[in-house]
Amino acid sequence: MFARLALAATLTALTIVPSQAIEWMHRKAGLWSITMSVDGVQHMPGAMRMCLDATTDAKLMDHSMSFQPKDCDPAAMSGMGASHTVDLTCHVDGGLQKTHIVMSFAGDAAYHMGTVWSWLLGPFARAHFRVYGDARLAQSLLEPMAQHVNSVCMGTVSEIFDGDAPHNARGCFAQAWSVAEILRSWIYLERKIVKPSGPSK
């Protein structure tokens, strides 16, 4: 019972019904952190992180009616901007169970939506090879990074890039996993390239 109501409370925080979706509920796009405490439940999961945009938020609200707990009073909401709270009181076995939910804007809106993570170029190139079987073509997807290596921080690769042209480098200017994945994939594909056999001696 406690687990079911805890889940319902979390969904309530994420999907307040349209009738309650006043100005308070206009959550700005970006990464949100959600923490919850429930009376009588000691081991609650850690903070849940969720990236929202206007479309996702609207879809959550459209589906909210399916998740409203029938044994609970209407949620008490407060806050605006970067911090919201939801307090929910539910009737359980003749008693009351209170749930307190805090939703905080963690920022990094562009960091999680639209940003290009350079380390994923490696897995993308390897996946391209596995689908199309052309190691040279897959390797060519990594070649533009050679210009970047010699332009921002000599000999290394930045963490992230703008999703839109001209794809400026952002974040950490020397990211180890970006270097490692691109280099690892380049070597992997190099070994897959069929070399022309020379004349027999």
Textual characterization of the structure:
The chain has 201 residues and is an alpha+beta fold. It folds into 2 domains: 2-110, no CATH class; 114-192, no CATH class. It contains 7 helices and 8 strands. It has helices at residues 2-14, 54-62, 109-112, 121-132, 135-140, 145-149, 176-192, and strands spanning 30-38, 48-52, 76-80, 83-92, 95-107, 116-117, 160-161, 169-170. The strands form 2 sheets. A 5-stranded antiparallel sheet has the order 2-1-5-4-3. Strands 6-7-8 form a 3-stranded antiparallel sheet, with no helix packed on it. Helix 4 (121-132) runs parallel beside helix 7 (176-192). It starts with a helix and ends in a 9-residue tail after the last helix.
Query: Ends: how far apart?
Result: 79 Å
Principal-axis shape: elongated
Largest sheet: 5 strands, antiparallel
| Approximate helicity band | 25-40%
- For the record, the count of structural domains works out to 2
Q: Give the mean pLDDT.
A: 74
Please compute the radius of gyration using only Cα atoms.
Answer: 25 Å
Q: Which helices and strands, and how do they pair?
A:
Elements: H1 2-14, E1 30-38, E2 48-52, H2 54-62, E3 76-80, E4 83-92, E5 95-107, H3 109-112, E6 116-117, H4 121-132, H5 135-140, H6 145-149, E7 160-161, E8 169-170, H7 176-192
